[in-house]
Amino acid sequence: MLSSGSTFSKVASAKPNVPKPGPPLWLLAELTYRCPLQCPYCSNPLDFAKHGKELTTAQWIEVFRQSREMGAAQLGFSGGEPLVRQDLAELIKAARDMGYYTNLITSGIGLTEKRIAEFSEAGLDHIQISFQAADEEVNNMLAGSKKAFAQKLAMARAVKAHGYPMVLNFVTHRHNIDRIERIIDLCLELEADFVELATCQFYGWAELNRAGLLPTRAQLANAERITNQYRARLQAQNHPCKLIFVTPDYYEERPKACMNGWANLFLDITPDGTALPCHSARQLPVEFPNVLEHSISHIWNESFGFNRFRGDDWMPEPCRSCDEKHKDFGGCRCQAFMLTGDASNADPVCSKSAHHGVILAAREEAERASQGMQALTMRNEKASRLIVKV
Amino acid sequence: MTPVDKVPVLRRGYRFQWEPAQACHVLLYPEGMIKLNDSASEIFKLIDGRQDVAAIIANLSERFPDVPGIDEDIFAFMEVASAQFWIDFL
Ligand code: SF4
Ligand code: SF4
Name one Pfam family in it (chain B) (predicted). Predict the structure, then answer.
């Protein structure tokens, strides 16, 4: 949703053919992988139970300071569930004092009126609450928790009562997308300023559950049509709520310009200090630097991992000779890796990719799939240990 | 057209600030950022929830006497900024 990033300064740098990156305007602080929920589409790594040690308060603040110096202006606190960190208010205050616009991205579980007031005092700018569905039963089943839905509603109301701007995020998939009207109605009732209706991206846990999550083309078209009707109505009423509808790229013929280009805008620091150019990049067979060993400036400008897919020298065919390569940068590296086995390949969403068949097969599978929700693998420690040997 | 006695104020959750790394003013809001050009920045600097549109026009006309049609630019800015819900009017 970051609508800037027009800074593609193609100035030659020390390394030949690697364009000098713009500043890391967006810093994502994944404070912890701990989370009381168990969403089957979670983007956290499948082996999250293996990751142990989290950065300390002082280490995080140093990350914020260095990144701010490099130009970061937006800071997202996420996780896992960031509310699990007892030092959250302290981190917010430190970041806000440095001039960051501070965003808390939470499931709402663990939020209390008291903490909302505390964060407000610390200078928190905005709170985003993510929902699993507008329907209580589906929401609870997907989140693996019974009280989750009621708690989220209460907290969304409290967030508005404290005067925060609020983004409500609904991850949509085949089990809830048909209720999009109910979802939008609920958001309007809760007075959301922005509503993100994002079909889940198939990384991490979602990839494992893809057949159970991908909506059919008809479902998507219907949801988009309804969203557009609401948009027209809101505009006619001069209503400030903005609806953002994100479609899964499985139904496109060209990939998304993932992250606006590799390591070009976005810097993600994971709980243990590993720096990534995108929150799903950890799965790639690329070595990524850690803030405990290197400065942010080194990580951003010099490190191997961050330069790995900058520019276009790394591209094989069909991207190499494609005249659209500066538009989409060859698509998503993680998706290329997951679906073709080679992270340098064209994103198979592209119809020019030799591997485009896997996408077509997934679409067909979505038409046929009858898998119920019970078949989804819930994101929890036990499942994590079963999938990845620890 | 925006009445001149309306007082513009930034919408709650929106922040206007100078970014040294980008060498420009920006408008920050939930998960987003817009880079502002010089004229928009000059207007934003005066949006403080106290001055009305007339005062903003008077201020800028005095400081930039050589810019023709500055009041029209300011009215146009107010239209866009309120249509985008960046500002509210008191
Ligand atoms: S997606 Fe769900 S399980 Fe994963 S961190 Fe977010 S709330 Fe927790
Ligand atoms: S071939 Fe590569 S660069 Fe060209 S459109 Fe497809 S993914 Fe993009």
Answer: PqqD
